[in-house]
Specification:
heterodimer, A: 200 residues, mainly alpha, B: 178 residues, 0% strand
């Protein structure tokens, strides 16, 4: 979470390179191979899932949880969930997660100005009221979960967020306390080739 | 529980869901009804807790090591309710006050075996500075005798607890606001 040396955040498609042998490297069990085939959304991210497949029960639960949090029906707009995920990833310095979820946010909102400023200037950049409320909550929950208070929900309430929407934003932020800790500590993102990544 | 000779931690009485239990969410309360609108999230958060803290096959990371990691993440985050849960579970596995203090005050408490110290150093780094990780940290764990599966399990466990602490914080705000 050091701000001294800000990582080079990018919207470019990155490839994830593992720092330890994956199940693909050592020869997966049929079960591991089947799960990785099923859950890896793109060639660029396959090594990540092939790393996590060493602990298959944990990967299965985490994948189902991730999908429920990011794609569950009703509740918070998908763009707001992606914005919270992006904010958490920026705070934690996760270049790979930021590139995937800033791209998703851009696809959903078409707001390239906001995405560009978030990546260039960070979470303190100028934002509209709604985006400011989501980002500020996600940043504080990421940095200091013990320090958040009900007052931190006030901007979200002023922007019209319901209990369910706040729960969804909480889940999306918390999921990236998780994802950032895997993506950045078991390997790292690096420039990839041409084909666009679909996941992460 | 197949591959361990350690006694299982005590079954937690009352509320079965780990997050409901720590958040003090009673059945049919407003927060229970809110969480029920995201049944798959609750189900797989609880499933992750079980996969990482009560695994059928703990492999190379023992139940006691998992509990020590959990306590350490909770102390650093901090999350008092998560910390208390894992103090109790460690005591149930036979840890005494000195053993608990060695984890909570690491690296200043009683000296730990090299493997346990390596695991806690890694826990501290992933909890507090996930963006500063390097491949050398993985090498350090391998030197301490941990294999690829163990390293993945430890990262998942630290990451799950970091997630759980933030979900609990969000639920606390919704309760405070009400």
């Amino acid at each position: 979470m050091s701000t001294a040396e800000r990582p080079p955040f990018t919207l470019d498609v990155l490839r994830w390179r593992p720092w330890l042998e994956t199940v693909d490297d050592v020869g997966p069990t049929p079960e591991q191979a089947a799960v990785v085939d099923q859950v890896a959304p793109s060639p660029e991210s396959r090594p990540y899932y092939a790393t996590l497949a060493h602990d298959l029960p944990a990967l299965r639960e985490r994948t189902a949880l991730f999908n429920a949090i990011m794609y569950g029906p009703r509740g918070a707009r998908r763009a707001d969930r992606e914005l919270a995920s992006t904010a958490a990833s920026l705070v934690n310095g996760c270049v790979y997660c930021t590139s995937v979820h800033a791209r998703r946010y851009l696809e959903l909102t078409k707001d390239s100005a906001v995405v560009g400023r978030l990546l260039d200037e960070g979470v303190g950049t100028d934002l509209g009221e709604r985006e400011r409320a989501v980002v500020d909550y996600a940043v504080k929950l990421t940095d200091d979960p013990a320090g958040v208070t009900a007052a931190d929900l006030a901007p979200l309430r002023r922007a019209g967020f319901s209990d369910l929407e706040i729960l969804d934003i909480t889940h999306a932020t918390a999921m990236f306390a998780w994802a950032n800790r895997l993506m950045q500590t078991l390997g790292e993102g690096e420039p990839a080739g041409d084909p666009p990544a679909q996941g992460g | 529980m197949a591959n361990t000779t350690e006694p299982a931690p005590p079954a937690d009485a009352g509320i079965p869901d780990p997050i409901d239990r720590l958040a003090g969410i009673a059945p049919d309360s407003p927060l229970a009804r809110l969480r029920a609108q995201r049944p798959e999230v609750a189900r797989h958060a609880a499933g992750s807790y079980l996969a990482l803290l009560e695994p059928d096959d703990p492999g190379g990371v023992s139940r006691r090591e998992r509990e020590a990691i959990a306590l350490r993440v909770a102390v650093l985050t901090p999350s008092p309710s998560i910390a208390e849960r894992h103090r109790a579970r460690l005591r149930a596995l036979g840890a005494d006050d000195v053993a608990l203090a060695a984890i909570e005050q690491f690296p200043h408490g009683a000296a730990l075996a090299p493997r346990e110290a390596a695991i806690l150093r890694h826990t501290d780094r992933l909890t507090l500075e996930p963006g500063a990780a390097t491949p050398a940290q993985i090498a350090e764990l391998k030197v301490a005798g941990l294999g690829p599966r163990d390293i993945v399990t430890i990262a998942q466990l630290i990451a799950y607890l970091s997630f759980e602490a933030r979900v609990l914080a969000g639920l606390r705000l919704l309760a405070e606001e009400a």
